[in-house]
Design brief:
By secondary structure, the protein is of the alpha+beta class. It contains 5 helices and 4 strands, in the order αβαβαβαβα.
Length: 189
C-alpha cells in the first residue's frame, strides 16, 4: 500500500524530484496507462478509456501515442507551430500502427504508484476487455505494479502450502528415524 516515495525513510534526490514534478504537473501525467489495441477500434478504445473513473478528463488525456522522431523532424522545420494548444497532438505526429495495432496513452488522475491508480487500471482493463474487436491490453508502470502484486499473491498461495506439506513429510520421516534410534526392534526402511 505504500507509494514509491513513502517507501523511503530519508529524502533521496529521486523523491525530491518527484515532489517537485507533482507540484507542477498532474500526478498521473508522468506515467500514463499504455493501451495497445487494434487500430481499427482506436476511436472506441479512446472513448471507453476516457469514461473510466480515475482516468484524467482534461483534453488530451487519452490520445494515440506520439512518435518522438516525427515530432523532432517536424519541429525543426516549423511544421508544428500551428498545432493546437489543448487536446490530442495532430495525427501527423502519431505513431503508425504496426501489424494493425496501435498505442494509446491514458493519463491517470492519481500518481502511478498509488493504490488508487492500481484500482483505475483494474477498471480500465475491465472496460476495455469488454469491447469486442479491440483486443486491448493495458500496460504501463501502474499495470506492471498490479501484475507483480497479483503474481506475488498467486505464488505465495501456491508455494506456502507446498512448503508446509514438504516440511510435514520430512518431520514424519524424522520422527520415524528417532523412534528407530530409541527402539532397536523398529527398523527404519
Amino acid at each position: 500500500g505504500l507509494t514509491t516515495q513513502d517507501s523511503f525513510t530519508n529524502n533521496p534526490e529521486a523523491v525530491v524530484g518527484q515532489r517537485l514534478y507533482d507540484a507542477k504537473f498532474d500526478k498521473g501525467a508522468g506515467a500514463p496507462a499504455v493501451i495497445v489495441a487494434d487500430a481499427a477500434a482506436v476511436d472506441e478504445v479512446i472513448a471507453t478509456a476516457s469514461k473510466v473513473d480515475g482516468v484524467a478528463q482534461k483534453p488530451g488525456s487519452v490520445c494515440i501515442q506520439i512518435d518522438l522522431a516525427k515530432v523532432k523532424a517536424l519541429a525543426g522545420g516549423g511544421a508544428l507551430s500551428n498545432a493546437p494548444a489543448a487536446g490530442c497532438p495532430p495525427a501527423l505526429v502519431a505513431v503508425q500502427p504496426i501489424d494493425g495495432r496501435t498505442v494509446v496513452n491514458a493519463n491517470l488522475v492519481d500518481s502511478y504508484d498509488s493504490p488508487e491508480a492500481i484500482d483505475t487500471v483494474k477498471r480500465l482493463r475491465d472496460a476495455l476487455h469488454a469491447l469486442s474487436g479491440a483486443n486491448a491490453i493495458v500496460g504501463g508502470s501502474t499495470a506492471a505494479t498490479l501484475d507483480v502484486q497479483q503474481a506475488a499473491v498467486h505464488d505465495r498461495n501456491l508455494i506456502i502450502p507446498i512448503v508446509l506439506v514438504v516440511i510435514f513429510l520430512l518431520a514424519n520421516q524424522l520422527v520415524d528415524l528417532l523412534y528407530a534410534v530409541l527402539d532397536p526392534r523398529i527398523r527404519y526402511v
